[in-house]
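Figure 2 data, in text form.
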Amino acid sequence: MILVIDVGNTNMTLGVYAGETAEATFRMMTKTPRTSDEYGVIITQLLKNRDIDALKLEGSIIASVVPDVMHSLTSALIRYTKTKPLIVGPGVKTGIKVVTEDPRAIGADRMVDAVAAYEKYGGPVLVLDFGTATTYDLITEKGEFAAGITAPGIRISSEALWKETAKLPNIEIKKPKSILAQETISSMQAGLMYGQIGQTEYIIKKVKEESGLDNLKVVATGGLGRIISDETDAIDIYDSALTLDGLRIIYEKNRTKR
């Protein structure tokens, strides 16, 4: 079994794989400062609750966009699971060739999603990840990371509304009964949800138009991705396990090097 960890700006998602099968998944908050011992105790307890012995893990892998947590998290895995984690970054074999102007600027999370989408669904494929930011990444039929678009995520937009205004409240992110809102909360929900749906559809349309890839598959993931994918025909597949599957695939590609 291996432990895979996706460290995002808001949440940290963990998964345990036996071969290609996900035996368990967990989520933790990223923004809470923790020592290596705190990480170690929490992770081992989460595993124990699923009857998984941390010391029986044969390996681990991390993709992170939050550098500040890496020292404590890596130390925790070494000390509490006796595995030295593979860190997704330059020098790690992915099977994806980055052909953008600055390949090193591609986030580890985006690369992991690209690997999973290409391996699972083939190319050309457009990968959408609805996280803290909403990202759109184009992978060609040859497995080339050709382009990426980054937009504010739904939650960031929501927080901007209530933090930067005097009277607008913090709201639950969900689709209202109608876009014809008649009070403040549903008005904000309508703007956020239908605005995101409209943005998603337009960006997908423009990517297909400018790339000339009419056969482009569109795959979405991320915590809020299902809400959006349920509301538009522009998204072909919603895959909640895409990122964790990508980490497993990258670990397997680098197994011989370890």
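Caption note: The first helix runs from residue 36 to 49.
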